[in-house]
Design brief:
- By secondary structure, the protein is mainly β.
- The protein contains no helices and 11 strands.
- Helices cover 0% and strands 57% of the residues.
- The mean pLDDT is 95.
- Strands 2, 4, 5, 6, 9, 10 and 11 form a 7-stranded mixed β-sheet that branches. Strands 1-3-8-7 form a 4-stranded antiparallel β-sheet, with no helix packed on it.
Length: 117
């Protein structure tokens, strides 16, 4: 059974950096599409960053130049990352990874990121 386990969230001051991880368990197949979403209180879910199938990374305008999505895949590792630099209070949200593997869509459990001014 495929499971995605997220880590790396936390509470930081504005301007700090965090790196979110999304480890894939139960399969070593490379995901065809990979995404990070976030959900802030009172707001709609936002697609923050994505690596589409066979495409190049794409970012929401609000995080362009500050966030970097990447994927690590070898014999022993299958993980998605989100490097977040120069964090702002408006980045406060629960962040979710979402991967498409063999035409199935899987979600992480979410990790809280809180940025104070």
């Amino acid at each position: 059974q495929v499971q995605l386990v997220e880590s790396g969230g936390g509470s930081v001051q504005a301007g700090a950096s965090l790196r979110l991880s999304c480890e894939v368990y139960g399969t070593n197949f490379r995901p065809t599409a990979m995404r990070w979403y976030r959900l802030a209180p009172g707001k709609q879910r936002e697609l923050v960053a994505a690596i589409p199938d066979g495409g190049t990374p794409d970012y929401a305008e609000s995080v362009e130049g500050r966030f970097t999505i990447s994927h690590d895949h070898d014999t022993n590792k299958n993980a998605l990352y989100l490097q977040m630099n120069n964090l702002k209070p408006e980045d406060t949200a629960v962040y979710y990874c979402n991967l498409d593997i063999w035409k199935q869509s899987y979600w992480g459990q979410g990790t809280q990121v809180t940025v104070s001014s």
